[in-house]
């Protein structure tokens, strides 16, 4: 039995992959109001997210994106999880933005990938509901989107179908793991290996239980969902301060704030103001947007910006999988595949060893 601690997108993906490999799986989850997955917008956009000095992360994003692209051939599954065939557009609202997207194009070109610089008319032809005073856009083909809430419920059902269990636990702040047993809250469960994927809360659990501590912190993010009467956009739109993803049934998701607010799980007025203000500055006719939902999520950020995927020196049967920061939805398929290799004790490709806890001597 493999016990997975945490049922965010990372835990759910890992559980599915392990069940497919023939392992028995139980997920234990302590319910938190602001799991990152619940607020996520679901962009699958490695080109947009590429940054200087993040070569290993970029390659990991591309590998995961390739796994997402494979899923697109299963049309009915893609529909259920809201996996789209759309693209991303970085919109320039003024001349400064235009310079920035020109720079971004050069950067992506140098990485060996193609993007298209569109002028104002070309942009408006594709997205006529944008403001008419935009300067142009950078078009990143196939940097698409999946709908996290649909994906979560699909994965849960699939875990149950394959014989896995998802248990909600109370007060899971500490565990003891020895001799194939996981002991917590005075109960015990058989476990040959455990996988810790509690997102932003992973460090608290590891510190309390094994005295292992990573340099990491929660980065709070808030997103909103709106309903419109007709479909407004085809593509994911990225502005300087916000991004927008069209969803099924004429809904749109708007993200996201990013603040150092510790473990604060509530939505505050400044966050509502931030998103509303930039939405108003970015799009015309926002009176057409009917408010549906607002969610806060805590992204888990490791000090070097890369996720932790791998087992601990102190106990090889404890596998870590957290710190996915802004990219957890995009990175979930490749993360699940790497974790499965750790569980099955297969040789880990060198490029993925980079993400192991060993880079912090842990
Ligand atoms: C506003 C916002 C927008 C985002 N947009 C995107 C995007 O467009 N594309 C993208 O790729 N990524 C995006 N992200 C990032 C992405 O959502 C995260 O990287 C990803 O969801 C992390 O998943 P996770 O399973 O590691 O963590 P979480 O989703 O936080 O799940 C952790 C789980 O562990 C549980 N837990 C906590 N403590 C314990 C414990 N002690 N015991 C047991 N269980 C515990 C929690 O209840 C939770 O269910 C966004 C994030 C935010 C906040």
Give the strand order, joined by hyphens, for the main sheet. Answer: 5-6-4-14-15-16-13-17
Please give the CATH class of the largest domain.
Alpha Beta
Helical proportion, percent range: 25-40%
Number of helices: 12
Number of domains: 2
- Can you name the CATH architecture of the largest domain? 3-Layer(bba) Sandwich
Low-confidence stretches: none
Bound molecules: flavin-adenine dinucleotide
CATH-defined fold name of the largest domain? FAD/NAD(P)-binding domain
Radius of gyration from the CA trace?
21 Å
**How many β-strand stretches?**
19
Report the principal-axis shape.
Answer: globular
**Main β-sheet description:** 8 strands, mixed
**Average pLDDT taken over every residue:** 97
CATH superfamily of the largest domain: FAD/NAD(P)-binding domain
Structural class: alpha/beta
Strand content: 25-35%
Q: How would you describe this structure to a colleague?
A:
The mean pLDDT is 97. This protein has twelve helices and 19 strands. The chain has an eight-stranded mixed sheet, sandwiched between helices. The protein has two domains: 163 residues, FAD/NAD(P)-binding domain; 149 residues, D-Amino Acid Oxidase, subunit A, domain 2 (D-Amino Acid Oxidase, Chain A, domain 2), CATH 3.30.9. With 362 residues, it is an alpha/beta fold. The relative contact order is 0.20. The chain binds flavin-adenine dinucleotide. Flavin-adenine dinucleotide binds next to helix 1, strand 2, helix 2, strand 13 and strand 17. The site of flavin-adenine dinucleotide has 41 residues, from helix 1, strand 2, helix 2, strand 13 and strand 17.
């Amino acid at each position: 039995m493999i016990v997975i601690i945490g049922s965010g997108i990372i835990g759910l993906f890992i559980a599915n992959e392990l069940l497919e490999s023939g392992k028995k799986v139980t997920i234990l989850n302590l319910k938190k109001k602001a799991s990152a997955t619940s607020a996520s917008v679901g962009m699958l956009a490695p080109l947009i997210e590429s940054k200087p000095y993040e070569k290993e992360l970029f390659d990991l994003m591309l590998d995961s994106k390739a796994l997402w692209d494979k899923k697109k051939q299963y049309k009915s599954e893609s529909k259920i999880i809201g996996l789209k065939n759309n693209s991303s557009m970085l919109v320039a609202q003024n001349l400064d933005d235009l310079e920035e997207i020109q720079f971004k194009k050069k950067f992506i070109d140098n990485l060996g990938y193609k993007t298209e610089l569109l002028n104002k008319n070309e942009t408006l032809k594709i997205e006529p509901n944008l403001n008419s005073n935009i300067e142009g856009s950078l078009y990143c083909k196939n940097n698409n989107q999946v709908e996290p809430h649909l994906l979560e419920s699909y994965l849960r059902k699939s875990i149950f179908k394959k014989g896995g269990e998802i248990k909600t636990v109370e007060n899971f702040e500490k565990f003891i793991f020895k001799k194939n047993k996981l002991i917590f809250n005075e109960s015990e469960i058989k476990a040959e290996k455990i996988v810790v994927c509690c997102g932003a809360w992973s460090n608290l659990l590891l510190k309390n239980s094994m005295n292992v501590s990573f340099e990491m912190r929660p980065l709070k993010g808030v997103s909103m969902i709106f309903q419109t009467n007709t479909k407004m956009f085809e593509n994911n739109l990225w502005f300087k301060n916000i991004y927008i993803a069209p969803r099924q049934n004429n809904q749109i998701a708007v993200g996201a704030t990013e603040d150092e607010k510790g473990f604060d799980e509530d939505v505050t007025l400044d966050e509502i103001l931030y998103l509303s203000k930039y939405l108003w500055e970015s799009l015309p006719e926002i009176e057409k947007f009917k408010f549906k939902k607002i969610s806060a999520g805590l992204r888990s950020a490791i000090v070097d910006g890369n996720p932790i995927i791998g087992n601990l020196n102190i106990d090889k049967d404890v596998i870590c999988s957290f710190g996915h920061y802004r990219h957890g939805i995009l990175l979930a398929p490749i993360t699940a595949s790497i974790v499965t290799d750790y569980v099955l004790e297969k040789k880990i490709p060198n490029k993925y060893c980079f993400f192991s806890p060993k880079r912090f001597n842990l």
